[in-house]
Write a structure and sequence with these properties.
It is a single chain. This protein is mostly helical and about 130 residues long. The chain has six helices and no strands. Helix 1 runs antiparallel to helix 5.
């Protein structure tokens, strides 16, 4: 009962950071496409959920194995050379890391209390 209100408070914050993270990734992919086309092609022509280049065959890119998802996870932990040498790309990359980290932290803060509540109170966990 006492954890209900912080969860309600953190849930909109969680979705805010998820959306910011998606937008940051989309901006970085668009920047790579526009300014560093050869690197974009080396990365496998990644798209995002809401953006694709005009020559792409995808309409919406929801595949878990898409180049965009692989690049997202790679860029969270590493910084490619083309980003290190470009100030604008470095700003976008830092925004991607910060918002993804905040979204992950909010996931832990929102989901962990829900799991604890469901495990501590068997009545909430039943479908009866």
């Amino acid at each position: 009962m006492y954890l209900r209100y912080p969860i309600l408070t953190l849930t909109p914050i969680y979705f805010y950071f998820i959306i910011r993270s998606i937008v940051a990734f989309q901006r970085l992919i668009k920047y790579e496409y526009g300014e560093h086309r050869s690197e974009w092609e080396n990365d496998g022509n990644p798209c995002t959920i809401f953006w694709r280049p005009p020559e792409s065959n995808y309409w919406l890119n929801f595949s878990l194995l898409s180049p965009g998802k692989k690049i997202w996870y790679k860029w969270i932990f590493t910084t490619p050379d083309w980003i290190k040498n470009d100030d604008r790309a470095l700003v976008l990359h830092r925004e991607l890391r910060k918002t993804t980290g905040a979204a992950f932290f909010c996931t832990l803060c929102v989901m962990a209390p829900i799991a604890i509540i469901l495990n501590l109170n068997p009545q909430l966990n039943s479908w009866k």
